Amino acid sequence: MENSMADVDAIVRVENLSKSFGSLEVIKDISFSVKKGQVLGIIGPSGSGKSTMLRCVNQLETVTGGSIALGGEYLVKDGIYSDKSTLRRIGLKSGLVFQNFNLFPHFSVLRNITEAQVVVLNRTKEQAETVAKTLLSKMGLEEKADAYPCQLSGGQQQRVSIARALALNPEVLFFDEPTSALDPELTGEILRVIRSLAEEKMTMVVVTHEMTFARDLCDHIIFMDGGVIIEQGLAQDVINNPQNERTKVFLSNY
Known about the structure:
Blueprint: E1 10-21, E2 24-35, E3 39-43, H1 50-57, E4 65-70, E5 73-77, E6 80-81, H2 84-91, E7 94-97, H3 109-121, H4 125-138, H5 154-166, E8 172-176, H6 184-199, E9 203-207, H7 211-217, E10 220-225, E11 228-234, H8 235-240, H9 245-252
């Protein structure tokens, strides 16, 4: 299988993606791309296929058809997956931050961030801890290295999960509704972290229900409903002046 892409600018390229669970088609012929340094926001009602699409790109679900490429290499092309070693290499190009944190409860904060570095990247424990402590400082959590997830607030847990994803040096970071499990007071601290990453030109794809945040932070917005892209364009245009009637109805709730 040809494993390179013509468009070297696109860190993420999704072409004609489809995904079914049995007879239920949850993603239907979706195509989009994200260039280096861009932030793509994905909005839409619950059940519209947003999270499933992220899981497909991050190899947590198997696609039914279409193509996905990360960093110029095909993960899957026309429904046919690359070999295992290629999939593993491509997997290191992306990081996924879940809405429910997914930290190991029996690991300290420090070990939550170092474990994958040692196992996946073959870093020494000392190297991994240096990276982890730098990221914890960046997240304002340097004093929490020895704490356990149960001792942290939801916002602190989410910042640890962001640090864990960044520790593997991904080319693109995916967020699946990173504030949905948080109360409004804690939401702000996560949005500030994502904003700081955007200022550093981190390539990101953010599924979110925070419309003001999406408008102000993202370069482009995709509005999904019923497994298809209803509308997409510049963030300010889609949020402030939607063209599709379904988009207008959805945004009127905000």
